[in-house]
Design goal:
Layout lengths: L12 H18 L11 H7 L5 H31 L3 H14 L2 H10 L5 H19 L5 H29 L5 H27 L6 H18 L13 H11 L10 H4 L7 H9 L2 H14 L4 H12 L4 H32 L1 H21 L6 H12 L5 H11 L6 H29 L2 H23 L2 H23 L7 E10 L2 E11 L4 E5 L6 H9 L6 E6 L2 E2 L5 H7 L1 E4 L11 H9 L10 H11 L1 H4 L11 H15 L3 E5 L7 H16 L3 E6 L2 H5 L4 E6 L2 E7 H6 L1 H16 L1
Parallel strand pairs: 3-8, 3-9, 6-7, 7-8
Antiparallel strand pairs: 1-2, 1-4, 4-5, 9-10
Length: about 750
């Protein structure tokens, strides 16, 4: 039976919420977080779901080829140092400079692939560049040349890191993502194994130096590009957002979403680059995970220092260090193979539990890593290396799947960019920290201290798991809501001028709005009532974009504006007259009016003078004070000047905060007449008031707020006819808040 709303039914916030709630169980299952566990083996599942394994193999091969150079640098750094007379500080400085110049790359790449299926092309091109640079490093004739090649190398690597993980997430269903991410993560391990094996072979029987090793690895990396040349970008959200969308569309009796239907997926107001980054940052679990990535990346530079430590403490040459890396890599690879299927099952059943388990394993592995610094025999070192490597199978994949799952599909490249940036910041900080500590404390205390700090990253990942379920559901709800609004518009149902659904708002750690819902029709005058501190002004800030809500959604004429900047909302037709702050006091009245004209669309700025003349005709009291500073005006005249802004901009929605505060009744009457005039031009108005009489004199409907929640909504005529109802609403709200 269809749950589609009738074509004539208005698309209210209540109806939207009811539809979202009705679809969540099925949608969670399609998104892979519904609790049901798919126990099929990876390649059997891919075969039965008709999903090609080639992209996974291609990304694996690219990952191996792309990681060879960094693996070689780690193992061969002492040999390179002897050639050019370098110290460990040179390599940490090289890493720091390379990371610094790479900061811009992730954002540039994210912008390049925004709303475009270009990720595979970026990956292949950057990999080809990486291959050439790897070979050229073997031909470096000076430390300066090696530095320059390394910087370019890291820029190419940053481009790969930005797109590789988001591309992989969109290539495969949610039920196998931990496994496929583990496969991609294991590419680094495989590269380490290959690099170690090649180094053992080339520096042993073949008797090549580090230069020949780099040339061979550059050739191997170039071969990986040829293998992956058929890799293609499937678009955003093929296996999660589109499937959730299909669930909603089936319930709405609409055709299923066609893969690659970019226009429909991109429906509504798209976010700019900065808005997209802010959208990601507002996700609570995402903020914590990004910080965990940064703190965890502090540990990465210790790998290079460990090579110097092993060479000095145990007299291990290049072949010996390579063999130790080989042993650890084999165990790590086995860990991925064993733990990744378990990770998929845990994530499907409880994402939070997976983060807790992964964090616990990561902490134990970090402690074992510290213990490696205090052993005295090679067998004990090998045993600890094996034990440490056995606990990596869930930590990395869990964090990657989590970060890519809690953001909308179209923002995954931006998430990759942010993750890369936070990782670079952490690695740069770790490089500087290790360099300073090793100079003042020695290499062993420096490594131990850094590894100890890295444990905090595992704890932060566990904390992020606490908020994962809510953030995963928010992504699903956003897709379902989008389909509901689109269906309402297509079927002839009235789409509200403004729809506020389940909005939450925080000032720092203090929450001030709790699940606020509001619906407003075209051309309506709405009163928002409540005592001081009820959250009325905060709600206006959320609607106008002066503050970012931390949950829920805000739609203007069906378009999602939740994360748009205030400037863009002004261009879309939202104007706010803030209480007591509607004018620039040091500017004259005329200068204030001219400032307001900058909010006009570019094509209408030539009509600015005419708009000002119209505003002065509507507010004649201002015409006699054009050249006086706004601070010299009375309170009522300042409010008139604020309303003149709305008259100039002719918005679709006008938000007025405390229109009558501190003003005489006669002045309030004049202001209300001005609001009626503006409303008669088609502008919908939300009027925040403490004075119930003022609100009832002009509004058609009223919302009452108490302690950040809506306590009552209804027509103002009911309040006029029943004063006891009005009194009981306020008293009941106060009573509930007190409890």
């Amino acid at each position: 039976m269809s749950t589609s709303p009738e074509p004539t039914a208005p698309a209210t916030t209540e109806g939207m919420q009811a539809f979202v709630d009705s679809q969540m169980t099925k949608a969670r299952q399609e998104a892979g977080t519904g609790g049901a566990v798919d126990r099929r083996r990876l390649f059997r599942l891919l075969r039965e779901e008709n999903v090609s394994a080639y992209p996974l193999m291609a990304l694996l091969v690219l990952g191996v080829g792309g990681s060879l150079a960094s693996s070689a640098v780690g193992v061969l750094s002492p040999d390179i140092a002897r050639t050019f007379g370098l110290t460990p500080q040179y390599f940490t400085s090289l890493m720091l400079i390379g990371q610094t110049v790479s900061f811009i790359v992730p954002l540039f790449v994210a912008r390049f692939v925004q709303h475009k299926a270009r990720r595979a092309a970026v990956l292949l091109v950057s990999q080809a560049l990486w291959s050439v640079l790897t070979g050229l490093q073997g031909l470096a004739i000076s430390a300066a040349m090696l530095l320059g090649l390394s910087i370019l190398d890291r820029m190419a690597g940053a481009a790969q890191a930005t797109v590789a993980q988001p591309l992989l997430i969109d290539l495969y269903p949610p039920t196998v993502r931990v496994r496929v991410v583990a496969f991609l993560s294991s590419a680094t391990i495989v590269a380490s194994l290959v690099a170690s094996g090649v180094i053992v072979l080339l520096t042993g029987p073949v008797n090549l130096n580090w230069r020949g090793t780099f040339l061979v690895m550059g050739l191997v990396a170039l071969i990986s590009v040829a293998f992956a040349i058929r890799l293609r970008d499937p678009g955003y959200g093929k296996y999660d957002a589109e499937k959730v969308r299909a669930v909603a569309r089936r319930s709405l009796d609409e055709p299923a979403v066609e893969p690659g239907d970019d226009e429909r997926i991109a429906r509504g107001t798209r976010l700019s680059m900065l808005e997209a980054l802010r959208r990601i940052w507002m996700i609570r679990s995402m903020r914590i995970m990004l910080l965990a990535v940064m703190v965890g990346s502090l540990v990465l530079p210790t790998a290079t220092y460990m090579q110097f430590y092993f060479a000095d403490r145990f007299a291990l040459d290049a072949s010996g260090r390579a063999m130790l890396s080989l042993v650890g890599g084999v165990v790590s690879l086995a860990s991925f193979v064993i733990l990744a299927p378990l990770g998929d099952r845990i994530f499907q059943r409880s994402p939070k539990l997976m983060f807790y388990i992964a964090g616990g394993l990561g902490i134990f592995g970090s402690l074992l890593g510290v213990a490696q610094l205090f052993v005295y025999s090679i067998p004990t070192l090998v045993a600890l290396t094996v034990a440490t490597s056995a606990f990596v199978g869930l930590t990395g994949p869990a964090l990657i799947v989590g970060t890519m799952s809690v953001v909308p599909a179209a923002l995954r490249p931006h998430t990759g960019a942010l993750t890369g940036l936070f990782g670079l910041v952490g690695t740069a900080a770790g490089t500087a920290l290790l360099g300073g500590l090793s100079t003042t404390m020695g290499i062993v205390p420096a490594i131990a201290t850094t590894l100890g700090i890295g444990i905090a990253a595992q704890i932060m990942g566990m904390i992020a798991g606490k908020y994962l379920r809510k953030d995963l559901d928010s992504v699903i709800e956003e897709v379902i809501e989008e389909e509901y609004v689109a269906h309402a518009a297509a079927s002839g149902s009235p789409v509200p001028m403004l729809s506020v659904r389940n909005v939450e708002y925080h000032y720092g750690s203090t929450q001030v709005l709790f699940g606020v819902d509001m619906t407003m029709r075209e051309g309506e005058v709405l009163a928002l009532l409540g005592v001081n501190g009820a959250g009325k002004s905060t709600l206006l800030r959320a609607i106008s974009g002066l503050g970012a809500c931390s949950g829920g959604s805000i739609r203007l004429q069906g378009h999602d504006i939740t994360y748009l900047d205030a400037e863009r909302r002004t261009r879309l037709g939202i104007t706010q007259v803030p209480g007591g702050k509607a004018v620039f006091p040091d500017l004259t009245v005329l200068e204030n009016l001219r400032c307001y004209t900058f909010g006009l669309p570019a094509g209408e700025r030539r009509a600015a003078s005419r708009r000002i003349d119209d505003a002065l005709a509507a507010f004649p009291n201002l015409a006699d004070r054009l050249h006086l500073p706004a601070s010299s005006l009375s309170g009522g005249e300042q409010q008139m000047l604020g309303l003149a802004k709305a008259y100039i901009l002719r918005p679709k929605l006008l938000l007025i905060d405390e229109l009558s505060l501190g003003l005489a009744p006669k002045v309030v009457g004049e202001l209300l007449d001005a609001v009626r005039t503006i409303n008669a031009q088609g502008t919908a108005v939300i009027l925040v008031e403490q004075s119930v009489n003022v609100a009832l004199a002009i509004a058609e409907r009223a919302y009452f707020m108490e302690r950040g929640q809506i306590r009552f909504e209804g027509p103002t005529r009911e309040l006029r006819e029943n004063r006891e109802m009005l009194r009981s609403v306020f008293l009941a709200g106060a009573g509930e808040g007190a409890r």
